Amino acid sequence: NNNFQYQSGRLTIHLAREFGFCYGVDRAVDYAYQARVRFPDRVVYLTGEIIHNPHVNGELRAQGIRFLSDPGESIDQLTDEHVVILPAFGVTIELLLALQERGCTLVDTTCGSVLNVWKNVKRYAEDGFTSIIHGKYKHEETRATASQALNTANGQYLVVLDRDEARVVCDYIRSGGDASAFRTRFEHAASPGFDPDRDLQRVGCANQTTMLSSESLEIGAMIRAAMSDRHGEAALSRHFRAFDTICSATQDRQDAVLALLDRHPVDLMLVIGGLNSSNTYNLARICAGRVPTYHIADPAGLVSAEIIRHKPVGSALEVTATGWLPEGRLTIGLTSGASTPDNLMGSAIRRLDELTNGGTQS
Q: How confident is the model at residue 359 (pLDDT cuts 50, 70, 90)?
């Protein structure tokens, strides 16, 4: 309410103008709560985390919603008496069919932006194009998206994580190479039986909606240039396709944090969100290129003015660091991922005020 700024004593906090729950996440969480109310006498399951935020998933567990991904749970125990919530990421076609065969009541919370990607991937497969997906091949959304390519006879996909992997693909498109080495490189990120000599002749680009949008666009441009070099600009439309599948909420949050960094000199950035959240990680990536950045799961990571628990960019694990909070006048930038409840931002502001201006220090 104060131009996205909080000031107290020696502390100034600038908030990104877009942060926290996006529409798709808000809708998914709301549907989950509604399912619990709508089916009070039935066992309600989630296939896995509804979003990548431990607080939200913990609250759903507290409502009695069970998770099929938990130890001891299995799809084999499901019957037509059970209710199953599909998460915002969506699920693979294989899992969807298995749930339908068991007659479960399904509550589908799949995000509309994800459905838009699926639509294009299915169209690519139907028209004989391999989907090149910018994403993390282990991520639930990317696995679900890739399964859409396999829902058509001879459909194929290839998942690339970043520019370096895209460059390998582009080099093969232009010049060919060792097909066996290529398959080994992308062993877990390609469709079964993937043949780069056959399956890179006609390609269409797609992306995991939570990836760094500028990188998705750049990878699309790289692949387009490689296909143009290989087949010629005149024939490009027969060999390359791309549609805008960048999630607007992801884009808005990334643009907002860039605007914050351009507008305000800050001593450090705090990014709040689940440590396994892709969109939160990419916000931290943006910030870390400019200023010291700490990706924390929640305000409890702000242990004291000396100690912080955070996940460094590029690390797979949370670490404990010291000496993170400078002395003297302090300006901090603050944002959160699309799967982070807004109340955690308020809690973080209060905790920062305590640590910088007195009060509870540990």
A: low
